[in-house]
Amino acid sequence: MTVPVDAGRRRIEELLEQHEGQVLRRWFEIAGAMSGGHVDRGGAAVPFGEIYQALRRSLGDSHDGSDLRGLLADLSRSRARQGFTPSETANVVFGLKEAVYEIAEADGSPEALRGFVWFSRIVDDHGLFTFETYAAARERIISDQAEQLLELSTPVVKLWEGIVAVPLIGTLDSARTQVVMEKLLQMLVETGSEHAVIDITGVPAVDTQVAQHLLKTVVAARLMGAECVISGIRPQIAHTIVTLGIEFGDIVTKASLADALAHALRQSGVEFVKGRGRRVTVRTEEN
Amino acid sequence: MTSPSELPISGNSDVVLIRQQVRTVAVEVGLSLVDQTKIVTAASELARNALVYAGGGRVRIEIVHNNVRAGLRLTVSDDGPGIPDIDQALVDGWTTGNGLGLGLSGSRRLVDEFDLRSVPGEGTLITVTKWAR
Ligand SMILES: Nc1ncnc2c1ncn2[C@@H]1O[C@H](COP(=O)(O)OP(=O)(O)OP(=O)(O)O)[C@@H](O)[C@H]1O
Ligand SMILES: [Mg+2]
């Protein structure tokens, strides 16, 4: 017995209309069970009703699937952000098949079953689309985070009027050193500073690449009329730099960030006066 | 870690990973802080050369013993173009790229034993060892 595809389609569309309430309820339950009973986990409420309507519109003669794709893309993105797995996300969509199968089976007509095969293929497509948008969203999130981390791990701070500092911490790879260099130069311009302190206390090793980046930064800063001081060169790093044969030329280096700040302050004409002991003034205020 | 481990060098993140791994083993072997930093830096230089000039390679990190002491040995190899003139490459400041030209010559000074073999068109094999004092 063969049933024309069109007849099957029509029957499914009718069933989707007639049993909307039941399908939606079952879909909600099935999707919940599929994602470990946590459909609403993290407030990731799924707009089942909206997706359902958009799906029905996409099946109609207009074939307008853009609303549906938009809703599914939003769903994938928000779920990716909230840390759902890709299967949990796609299962929400696949759950609809089971809900619709139940009404097709109850209907029992050859048209309904034929139509279900057609419907199921469409849902599979949408499920895969969800999977793909999820993966793209996830990648996006990861690369954003990596960038943020890069930015976060290289704070350029203003120490004093005219003095900025960048404390380098951790392993310096090429990408990070590049970011540091750019941020430092930008900060020099923004704050109109003439002194910069690059503190490498937190750097475990300085190889020729890191040294080259440091040297280039110092030269670039000089071109902008600013002087750099490198501080925090620990003994083992100093040994290694000397053995490698790297020369820092006339670049001023200081043991600690505090020494570097004192140096920069002196250079910019700030005078220190050593206090003569402590003086504590207690003042009582009377109204 | 008693069995030698071999790590791939195929990107910048691998160089970072190698540095960390070498540091861990260097601590295990009992190298002083200065010597740890020296061998870590040498590993960084040799791995990056393999990456830059040979498009990648691999490094073997192992603990070795002679009669008196333990040491850390690195074997960095690649299947790149090789180094046509080794003496030239070991001259301070010599570079065919845009580096400082100190990686190879500096690494030789950072370690206790340095062995460089290279066959043009076949690749380069560098073995370095740092002994615990
Ligand atoms: N694995 C390799 N395969 C082919 N050529 C190499 C390899 N390692 C080094 N060389 C050659 O030897 C030269 C010197 O290497 P060296 O590491 O001393 O300097 P560099 O890499 O140019 O600069 P840097 O000071 O940043 O390391 C390189 O410019 C390159 O031509
Ligand atoms: Mg090099």
TrEMBL record, chain A:
Superkingdom, taxonomy of origin: Bacteria
Q: Which UniProt keywords apply?
A: Phosphoprotein
Signal peptide range equals none
Provide an example Pfam family for this protein. RsbRD_N
List the CDD domains: STAS_RsbR_RsbS_like
Cited Gene3D superfamilies? STAS domain
Domain STAS: start-end pairs? 153-264
The protein in question is named Polyvinylalcohol dehydrogenase
Species of origin reads Planobispora longispora
Q: Which gene encodes it?
A: rsbR
UniProtKB/TrEMBL annotation, chain B:
* One protein family per Pfam: HATPase_c
* InterPro entries for this protein: HATPase_C_sf, HATPase_dom
Lineage runs: Bacteria, Bacillati, Actinomycetota, Actinomycetes, Streptosporangiales
Protein name from the UniProt record:
Anti-sigma regulatory factor
Q: Which residues form the Histidine kinase/HSP90-like ATPase domain?
A: 34-133
